[in-house]
Amino acid sequence: IKQNQNTENDDPFRKIKNAKFRKKSAVKSGDRATFNLFQYLTKTSKEKKKEIQFKYRTVYKSGNRSHKIWKPRGKTREGGKRKKYTKLKKAILSYRRQKSQNQPKNDLNAELLQETVHLIKSLSIDSQEKEKETQKVAVSNELEPTHELVKSIHSRRFRSYCDNCTTPLLIELTEQLIRELDRFQKRAVAQNAIKAHAHRRFVVGFREANNFLLVKKVKLIIIAPDCEKCDGEDGLDEKISNIKKQCQQQSVPYIFSLRRRQLAYALFKKAPVGCVVVLDFDGAREIFLKLLQALEIARKSYEDLTNKVK
């Protein structure tokens, strides 16, 4: 018996007879077993929700994967969407068509005209006829001296709507101002695009110029002196004259300095720019004041040129 007791004490895997470590049975002695039938019931939804299946389009990188190229469904235009032209663009295009129709289609007429001019020049003109011609020219010069002078000043690069001379100082200052404002605007867009759009430094285009002149938020307008000629209603010449009138009424300075390509180069744009509207010049006030001084000098020089003969 003692041997059996020793073996029981030495056995490490013996059962521990202790109330703490006993598993509590669900049913006690003397109690009845109870259960709930609702536990065994399963809920069945009458209308199962339809699973939404999203179809994702696979995007592949460039390479020769002809079997994996995604093809769009439906009809597509070959040249892309058709552009919607503005009234100004339509007027310019119609003026170009009229101009091309009026010009001679064949170059034979031009060659014949050149030949006739050479023949006339080769003929000898009498001294009396020469004197008469010189007298006529002198009379015409006395009657309309300023008109011919203005014609000699203006050209395709410097149109008749310009009021100031394009001095090198004026060109340099306008380029500096535009570049500074463009730098400020790009920095603001990088920080917060929505806030930057609400507080823009400058705007491009004749339509934007009209819109902001109506609201009276314009500080300066820079117009290209080599804009395309376009007469008639809703034409470019009429737009520029209206902008000039509004600027004079609101005492807003306007400048004719940089050409269209130069404005586009300053703003890092491919298409030529005809008009730049300055809305806020904070941070470039010194350049702005210098530009206004240079503008006064350029206008005086233009007035001196036109009033020389008078």
UniProtKB/TrEMBL annotation:
Gene name per UniProt: SECISBP2
Residues in Ribosomal protein eL8/eL30/eS12/Gadd45 domain copies: 192-285
A molecular-function term among this protein's GO annotations: mRNA 3'-UTR binding
InterPro entries: Ribosomal_eL30-like_sf, Ribosomal_eL8/eL30/eS12/Gad45, SECISBP2
Single GO cellular component term: mitochondrion
Protein name (record): Selenocysteine insertion sequence-binding protein 2
Gene3D superfamilies registered for this protein in UniProt: 3.30.1330.30
